Amino acid sequence: MTAADDARLILARLGVPDTAFSTGGLPCRSPVDGSAGSPVRVHDRSDVDAALSAAAGAFAAWRRVPAPRRGELVRLLGEELRAAKADLAMLVTLEAGKITSEGLGEVQEMIDICDFATGLSRQLYGLTLPSERPGHHMRETWQPLGPVAVISAFNFPVAVWAWNAALALVCGDPVIWKPSEKTPLTALAVHAVAERALARFGDAPDGLLQLLVGGRDVGEALVADPRVALVSATGSTRMGRAVATTVAGRLGRSLLELGGNNAMIVTPSADMDMAVRAIAFSAVGTCGQRCTTLRRLLVHEDVADALIARLASAYSTLPVGDPRAPGTLVGPLIDEDAVKGFEAALAQAVAEGGTVVVGGTRGEGSYVRPAIVRMPAQSAVVRHETFAPILYVLTWRDFDDAVALQNDVPQGLSSCVFTDSVREAEAFLSAWGSDCGIANVNIGPSGAEIGGAFGGEKETGGGRESGSDAWKAYMRRQTQTVNFSADLPLAQGVTFEV
Amino acid sequence: MTAADDARLILARLGVPDTAFSTGGLPCRSPVDGSAGSPVRVHDRSDVDAALSAAAGAFAAWRRVPAPRRGELVRLLGEELRAAKADLAMLVTLEAGKITSEGLGEVQEMIDICDFATGLSRQLYGLTLPSERPGHHMRETWQPLGPVAVISAFNFPVAVWAWNAALALVCGDPVIWKPSEKTPLTALAVHAVAERALARFGDAPDGLLQLLVGGRDVGEALVADPRVALVSATGSTRMGRAVATTVAGRLGRSLLELGGNNAMIVTPSADMDMAVRAIAFSAVGTCGQRCTTLRRLLVHEDVADALIARLASAYSTLPVGDPRAPGTLVGPLIDEDAVKGFEAALAQAVAEGGTVVVGGTRGEGSYVRPAIVRMPAQSAVVRHETFAPILYVLTWRDFDDAVALQNDVPQGLSSCVFTDSVREAEAFLSAWGSDCGIANVNIGPSGAEIGGAFGGEKETGGGRESGSDAWKAYMRRQTQTVNFSADLPLAQGVTFEV
Amino acid sequence: MTAADDARLILARLGVPDTAFSTGGLPCRSPVDGSAGSPVRVHDRSDVDAALSAAAGAFAAWRRVPAPRRGELVRLLGEELRAAKADLAMLVTLEAGKITSEGLGEVQEMIDICDFATGLSRQLYGLTLPSERPGHHMRETWQPLGPVAVISAFNFPVAVWAWNAALALVCGDPVIWKPSEKTPLTALAVHAVAERALARFGDAPDGLLQLLVGGRDVGEALVADPRVALVSATGSTRMGRAVATTVAGRLGRSLLELGGNNAMIVTPSADMDMAVRAIAFSAVGTCGQRCTTLRRLLVHEDVADALIARLASAYSTLPVGDPRAPGTLVGPLIDEDAVKGFEAALAQAVAEGGTVVVGGTRGEGSYVRPAIVRMPAQSAVVRHETFAPILYVLTWRDFDDAVALQNDVPQGLSSCVFTDSVREAEAFLSAWGSDCGIANVNIGPSGAEIGGAFGGEKETGGGRESGSDAWKAYMRRQTQTVNFSADLPLAQGVTFEV
Amino acid sequence: MTAADDARLILARLGVPDTAFSTGGLPCRSPVDGSAGSPVRVHDRSDVDAALSAAAGAFAAWRRVPAPRRGELVRLLGEELRAAKADLAMLVTLEAGKITSEGLGEVQEMIDICDFATGLSRQLYGLTLPSERPGHHMRETWQPLGPVAVISAFNFPVAVWAWNAALALVCGDPVIWKPSEKTPLTALAVHAVAERALARFGDAPDGLLQLLVGGRDVGEALVADPRVALVSATGSTRMGRAVATTVAGRLGRSLLELGGNNAMIVTPSADMDMAVRAIAFSAVGTCGQRCTTLRRLLVHEDVADALIARLASAYSTLPVGDPRAPGTLVGPLIDEDAVKGFEAALAQAVAEGGTVVVGGTRGEGSYVRPAIVRMPAQSAVVRHETFAPILYVLTWRDFDDAVALQNDVPQGLSSCVFTDSVREAEAFLSAWGSDCGIANVNIGPSGAEIGGAFGGEKETGGGRESGSDAWKAYMRRQTQTVNFSADLPLAQGVTFEV
């Protein structure tokens, strides 16, 4: 059975209606075997307008629903996701090419954030604080913000929506989702699952969760519209810059998760067995198409040769192939463009003095063999994020230089060090250490937990999603002062008597 | 003695060097009496470049200074501001036209934020949090961000700098200040005071606090430069929109405090004595030139006539005049342009059906008599922020309509209700109440305490300064995970074994 | 079918084993109809010792399980409680005499705290904070504490365990439960449900959740044993005082939820319809046997007569009877002793000058008619908590006096005011307002949500359970400082060089 | 000049009145040279009663003063302490025998906490949180608690008062201080300094800060009195146990800082130079009379001999003597009893198989030479806190055993590890690592910063003072719910309609 056939069965099982497809719609070709499914019906600008009207109406009602009750919807969503886990995971595999374990992991991440957000629905803590004026009470309260547009990328076709939707729902905000044009099927499937949660919940307003499948015009219409209170966009730095500028021009709010160029520093005291495993997973997992994929390996010169040799050996036997097959660790790139990007980057790396240590060849369809490239310096290609499994290796002698190398790229998402030295580890985590939003010790750059805030600095866009107080992006803060005295004192001792 | 002479003496006493002035510089004319002081030397784009280089160097050093020690500098700054309070306050009066009590209040606000930031220097709390993986520790740490550019407006010529600088310094960031072209003298004076604190501190890096006097080109150069990690800009919505767009284009960070159009709702249960006093202060204080000035009065129709009559009476005897004089409550507008704006708005209001109840005339120089205008509807002029003492009055019958009126303007800074009803007060503070960043009960919209977060929504720009966790804008967040086990588990239960 | 028969069927359905019962055990007599079930096997001091050994072992293992994984057990517990909700609720009705809706509400509270604690399992936030010493990192981490003994009372026979157990489990602590001797059956049932969650979870250590049915000796043995890290005890002030003293003598930790003597202040602006309903529910719900039952009604003298008349009318038709019957609002007191206490208190009230307005008679078994007693002053009987449905009414003229009356009792659990005045409401909530742990406006004293911290001051014992940061009682705090520099600076600038 | 003469001059300079002294009062003998000063007038039980009445009155007024204004008093106290720093420090030296640098450090700690508490006065954050009921607002507010009794010990004769007083004042609580009978002079001096701050502040209520010099009876009267809302006691475990029991018996609140028995683990990867310096400071500083003094050295057997040799060498040349003399590192023990305790412990150690490596002799007066004793096992003397400079050394082979040794004492104050291994350091800081309230890496156990919470577990008493949220001990928490709807929903969906 082709991947497209598999997908069709799952979509039917999950209750995606036939009306979601139409001839002339978005073509769906699985990277797994190139098989094509039914084209997906696309929305246009008038659909965007209708969706925004519906979202505005939903917001007026939803913000009045007590947050713990909103949390109940998210809890039910978690239950439905648990029930559909295997199907959704397989669909991720079929549409995005992830191996089975990663597909399951992505759905688990959706479930985790639902559990987390359910608890959050009784928190959303603001502050009470003392006023300097007698007979006054001060409070800071977080209020619902308004409709949230979620623009997601193909590489996490469902988890990113869940990160945003679970928090937004609990915070009192409707959600409009524009998934990547490369992965509409998983979006349809997730929305069908969400419909079940909504049905069990009972009285959620219409327009609370909406899906807009479409191209750039749909995204642009959402981004430009002042009815969208928050644009949460995941994707390339180029896209993010455009979103940020448009939203800023209307003094809106955006939450950006853009490119990464993630490095690992390996020091002599590192546990090399662990380092090899961590490097392999984070450099070739999801075929190098995670935002947090390891792209730069910065090794102390004394241990570089040995480490590279071990990596080359591991790479040479990497099971590349159908991601559905047990044992496969590397599935396909998402499409032909990605393969071309892979090849172009390798060519540029060689032109800049690099030596391909292992891999770098392409196979059938969009399958490639992950590459390791030793580079003489952090040249242009290294400083650029190529969304493919290429690992550049550089060496250093002094730990401060390693940190400087790590920081000397435009992106600032994830970073890590492998070391058993307290001094090195803590320096890496210090104010003068890694400049990234994520900094790990003895863990690869990839694979964040939902309890922490996820996101990065510099060209990564500065947004934070998921745990910690990332929920604040989905609310507006209000400073409230109540005077219950019979007097009218002014702050800072100002006097003014008419 | 002219105001300019007064100012000259104070500047000398505070130690502002002669080199700060130069012929051909920025002209300084006091709104108090129109007298002109020495022109202030202006900086150009090459000064901006030099300042940014110095700030980058200062950052590299300052971020390594322990935060509690950085707090000591801010504590010393607070001490020096206390010592110079009377002089600085008078200079605010002379240059910005504020009455004495308001000038003192503004300096007190600087002092308050220094005390607050000193305490904060041992907090800047991140989180420790449990990892889902055995033998792992997770932490969220806030790190210094980088140089901060502060662009301030004439109406709070010194406090806004202090709000930003006190927090930025404690957070580990150098500060470059571009004051309003209308108020360079107070900036020079504050910098002279800050120099004393730096001298007592001893070993702060060069370039930690810098002042750039200049026009639009200086501001633009700062805003566009990627070396500025955070642009904190206070001013008009037009200016803010430009700043936001430029900064977004380079994926930088901005903190905006833009226009307000602040309303008070008065309900029948309100204490009318207090309401009258609160309205008068918040509508005419600082001659209507606060961001939080009361501009819209929304009164229940049953109490409107009586309230307006009392206000008209109070307005008719308002002491307008030299702000240095004891008893004066209303000083001058900042300049001739402001007077023209005042007159134009009144004319437009009349054209839109409004009736001027009291005031609205201009006197000598830039002195005007504050106006009350009854409006038939929330027409264009009411929805626009005119930086002058005009109070538009509208009536309502149903409390929900009052809230709808309050929210139906593009700005979202401050708001308030006068009522003794728990139901009305709490509804105003609810998720479906005021949409502003500040919401008060039985207090005017004006006069925030530094302990709360200050700022607003919608066209006000979304930034928050001063208290609560506003300091987070001056830092970058880092999610850290440390694996201290001998194993390498992946989040979400993903398995991947080379 | 007798209540005892009903109970037997439910216990069997929930899987409580026969070994839980034994002749000579604790007699179980339902207050609903006096029917007797099988006696419950009791534990002795050697069981306590064995339980504590097992708990110590469980602690050593459980504290190493990542908190989010511990949260998964609590999530499963919530699922199992949802599945058993109707049965558990009916058992609460049968054993404690609560009406159906209250029985369901109590089980819902267990479910709510499980949802909350599941989210909490990724939080348990400590702090990262800046050190005053260069090259140092400071952190505050919350660590598991150790075995927790939960001593619960008959009136919330299952919810209080859940409040404690859900938090304790997530925090890393085993739980030993000693339920009230009056309600062992619900405890057995809950433990059977918990066993299912444990079975689904899979690898929880033995001894994680234990149940000890028994009398005073069992409680005393638990309280005195240093292996119990935290004693969480709910019950009378007399019991709490003994627990506190014993635990203090071994420098252990206790969390006490003791007596309340909860008042409502009614002011002239109150919505009297709502007040009547709130008073009725909070004074007669659970037959006056909640810790938060309304016991004192403090009414402004101008509205007292009218309010009392309405209450008398409502009381006179209160449906008292079998709590299983639809429509019943007042079930039985827990036992004959409680009835005697009810009668004795009424007699004392009359002796102290009170007038019984309505109710005060006893019916069959332990059914009584709730009483309203007008009192001339806050005399001894009013200041004492009688666990029965007696509402004392006092009047006042000045609001400050009302607050003083409210505070002038030894207990400090819950309190409320009915008013529409902002000034009165906020004064009640101010530093000089209610001295209780719970203070409500336009809500009765009873019926807290799990998101807030629950507990009270003075003789109520000072403990806090459930929401907010109540979880901290179940953990120990550790202040950690890591020096990663090559230097050894001392705090406060101390120098000491060998 | 004798130490007593020095002290007399300082007391006069600081304005301590003659009435503070009286014949027949508390004898004051300086441990520095044994010289005796004027006896200090002692208070009796009737003074305690009067003080408590005054404190109750002060509380009623002070809790109404806005917290930021209360913070201003603490800021002024900080200023006055800065001005008196040298005098106070010298008095600490003269009365408690600390070396100059430590005396200065102790006063600096007072200053630091004042700065911290000043900032805190605008925080004291409670929470706003979402209600599950429509039209309801929930809040958690922290309210002033009531009079605080501070019982302090001789070894930190002034800092501990400041930790408590600065927080208590800001929190709205009056403070009654009962200093150690061994150090009344520093208490008198500090109170004279505080009087200046009060005078500058202007309108603080009488009885806000009170000093009661006296013996056990004074302490007991304070502890037993229900008017004391919080007893904050620092001292021996024996004393703390008595305090805890008495306070528990009246259901009051206590904050205990009792004995420590602090260990350092040294692993092979430790920087031995740093370890030697850290050990020397923390074992002999304050002549071994800090609660956080290092008492147990747990060294890996491979590095033990070398480390002990270096320590023995350093100890053999330790400058013991007059603490006023430049260069002195070890001053006297506090009195003859302390010397006897020192000698007795050494004798017991030898009896238990220990070998005195260096030191252990006594000199003139109460001067002794710090001792290092190698012990075969963690025997009784090692598990007991002797307040004198004795360092017991034990060895281990496996890191887990080292942690077990560290934890296997009744006390739980401070602990540390010297290592450069991430695995060891983080394991030490983990849920299964150190069981102490303080855990350091590459820092001795001694010398906490005021920003962290200070205190310990087990027999150390569980209290926390100083930074983090230690201020919560000085306030009471109130959970507030406001219903602003026209409906009366019950939590947990309970229905109850009369």
Automatic annotation (TrEMBL), chains A, B, C, D:
Record's keyword terms, sorted: NAD, Oxidoreductase
Active-site positions on this chain: E257
The keyword NAD is assigned to this record: yes
A Pfam family of this chain: Aldedh
Enzyme class: oxidoreductase
InterPro entries tied to this protein: Ald_DH/histidinol_DH (IPR016161), Ald_DH_C (IPR016163), Ald_DH_CS_GLU (IPR029510), Ald_DH_N (IPR016162), Aldehyde_DH_dom (IPR015590), ALDH7A1-like (IPR044638)
EC number of this enzyme: 1.2.1.3
PANTHER family: ALPHA-AMINOADIPIC SEMIALDEHYDE DEHYDROGENASE (PTHR43521)
The family this protein is said to belong to: Belongs to the aldehyde dehydrogenase family.
Protein name (record): aldehyde dehydrogenase (NAD(+))
